[in-house]
Amino acid sequence: MKRIAALMLVLVLAMASLAGCGGNQQGGGEGSKAEEVKKPELKDYGSGEIKIWVANEVLDFTKQKAEEFIAAHEAYKGYTIAVEEVGEGDAAGKMITDVDAGADIFGFAQDQLARLVSTGAVSPALWDAAWITEQNDALSVGAATMGGTIYAYPVTSDNGYFMYYDKSVITDPSSLDKILEQCEKAGKSFYMEINSGWYQTAFFFAAGCKMDFTANDEGGFTAADMTYASEDGVNALKAMIKLAESPAFVNGSSVSAAANAAAVVSGTWDSGAAKELFGDNYAAVKLPTANIGGKDVQLSGFGGFKLMGVKPQTEEGKLVVCKELAQYLTSEEVQLARYEAVGWGPSNKKAQGNEAIKNDVALSAIRDQLQYTIPQGQYPGDYWGLATSLGDSVIAGEFKGKSDADMMKALEDFQNTCLSYVTAK
Q1: What pLDDT, on the 0 to 100 scale, is given for residue 207?
Q2: Do domains 2-158+304-370 and 162-300+380-419 have the same CATH topology?
Q3: Per-residue pLDDT reduced to its tens digit, 159-173
């Protein structure tokens, strides 16, 4: 751990020396602090094992592609590949526990970036920063960026939720009121899981509410900006109550479990089931607008991206090989191959222009929706249970006849419990 941390300090100092040369923009815009660093040209890139952590569904795919890369580069043939199953949600926790024992290259969810950076478990982009920005869409680059510095390679732009629907029933999917009206007229159901802290944010974020927690490397929360207990929050809650009162509403998000459905709010993982359910009438679109606080606003929610990180290395040659390999594994070619193998939606802009990708109904819908979403961060564990309880109360009709003050009190209790987990640094 000490050796890795020492090299990380060298990298950070190098980055700082470039701060005045490049841009310092959030969101992965043109110019990163690191982009003027030149790739080292070495006579000997060393040898050893490169350990890679990825999710089970891409385990064999990643091993095949990584070995093909090494075989194609004579200078890198001193390295062997070991690919292990560690999911994107677990990789960061394992990395920060023991950086030395962690993977050299690892896939992770974007909400874990801050923890990885703060513990020196991920190397900043160096000569590859400009390539990352040029190749990938702005949202995914933004998810890989912290403090104006790019730290990871985008893998996907496909995590979030949107609406699958039966186009023979719903001819106008633009607004929630119109969708419910069409479902009610046809005697069909509209599915959305409003007792879920993930889906529920569609209303609160659309209303203008904030929920942003800052976590340290130990998982403790040191700061927060949460505004659910507000007029905006009450308006969002009223919109959820109105939805739950529709005879067409059914609480749920699993397409395969939906019965008599004309619309289901879900994600790309459900595309196969949606195609089977709706057949020739299969369609998908971004979430509709909803009337919240007297205004028609776009429903929002959480968005997410899969990223690939490279651990700082004590040997310069191995760092070069790992970064070149990570670049290849997130390239247009491999992102397209990964889509064909497991259906992951590319972050690479050229790959997104591929006819198969453009014609993928679900991926088109999530791309349209992601521009209205907020990247999922880290939240107190109780948030999820509180969100479920709030949604359950809405579904059970417990707010019927309640005043705005009653709703505000419920949201204050919700918010205060979440904020109680914030401690001093």
Answers
A1: 98
A2: yes
A3: 999 999 999 999 999
